[in-house]
Specification:
By secondary structure, the protein is α/β, with parallel strands linked by helices. The chain is built from 19 helices and 8 strands. Helix 2 packs across helix 3 and helix 13 packs across helix 17.
Length: 405
Amino acid sequence: MDYNNIGLYLLELRKYYKLTQGELATKLGVSRQAVSKWETGNSLPDIELLAEISELYGISIDDIIKADISKIKHKEDINIYKKEKCSKNISIIGCGRWGSFIGWYLDSLGHKVSIYGRPDSVNMKKLMDTRKNEYIGLSNSIKLNCDIIAVKKAEIIVISVASQILGDVARQLGEIDIKNKIIVLCMKGIEISTGRRLTQVIDDTLDHSNKVAVWLGPGHPQEFYNGIANCMVIDSNDEFVKKELIRAFSSKLIRFYFGTDLVGNEVGAAAKNVIGIAAGMLDGLGMSTLKGALMSRGTREIGRLIVAMGGNESSVYGLCHLGDYESTIFSKYSHNRAFGENMVNKKKYDRLAEGYYTDIALRNLGKNYGIELPICESVYQILYCNAKPSSILEMLFARNLKNEF
């Protein structure tokens, strides 16, 4: 057994998950000096600590003994144990179709789940009275409460509210001194007033002991509830948080991928809702065949903005954006598509369509970063400037001829 190789392996693992020696020592209940001795090859963790380390990183003790550093560089090669998940104490803030679905889903995995909703919320009143809504029925094991202080008991707080009120929710959490939690954001948007991504809203408001992640990707509660599986993505600046959440939340119903570009995933996820409104407008105008062009040009447009904001252009082709197009641009369950279709036909639509608000934020970001966003601008002119949809569409296609790429 080569102490030096094992020490180097433990060092690289810790660095990969962006942990300091002190942070790792705290998680394992040992001194920082003990961690230092392991990493320099002067000693080895005992068998109980080896088991804790393997559990922490989602690898086997045998992986540690073999000390194959090449596997650290390719995390998909590090096996996540196929074993019973540890039950987590999870609070969900939000009781709409996504909040109730998330509660139902995580409860089905064996987690201890509670759902918080405002006492004056119509959705919450219905859940309290009947334990069901038009989409989902909740088991008695899920606790329902209208006192936000209850979320302090949770290890993980999942937030599923309208993106533009996240700042208010974050301030409420700050007022009750939320610390040392994993905060998971399950909505898509950009804050209009500041242009901040939603993870930035949390980071700027709550104590820095909290870790924030996003849960993004395609699918609708109606489909999941009927057993139709899909793929989604979890992303965070904290590698350990990503792995912990994916291990806790994965099932045969939802396969989660590791996100690798938080900026790109957040911007791409928010922007696809604007593309969804544009798609609905095409449906309403009887021009659905142009959706192929919309998807192609939409990805290029949003990809440029992602790069300007410091993200990776390839993220626009992942689950956060292009991978979510079917659910957003074609699905009968898509609120954004339905909003766009009803809007051009002058019909009322009273469901939340996040793209309506995100379009303002994207337009502002485009101007701030000097990026031309013709589709977002066209949607803006129709939504906020009373422009005639058919005329705006003609102008969009009358733009100067140019190379596709």
